[in-house]
Amino acid sequence: MSHVTLCVQLWARAGQETVLADYEDQVLCLLPAHAGRVLSRVRSLETGDQPHEVQVIEFAAERAIDDYLRDPTRVALAGLRDRAIERTEMFRVTTIG
Fold this sequence. Notes:
Blueprint: E1 4-12, H1 17-28, E2 36-43, E3 53-59, H2 62-69, H3 72-76, H4 78-84, E4 85-93
Antiparallel strand pairs: 1-3, 1-4, 2-3
Helix pairs in contact: 1-4
């Protein structure tokens, strides 16, 4: 099985850091249903241009990513996501060591 590992960087809209965290708590719970899991989830302790939250997520296959992104519960939360998240960057990574 060919796993896919993603690094997801999330920038919160001004004053919406708690809303971002609440949204991510809800959608990350959907990962197991799509052969995904959180390997790491961290938040910045500083303010500035860096992302507010960074996640490393592993999926069993490419198709699982698409299924997760189209999950009806996740899609239904799009308004909350738009309110909370200013910018998202997502890219494939590999584990070293």
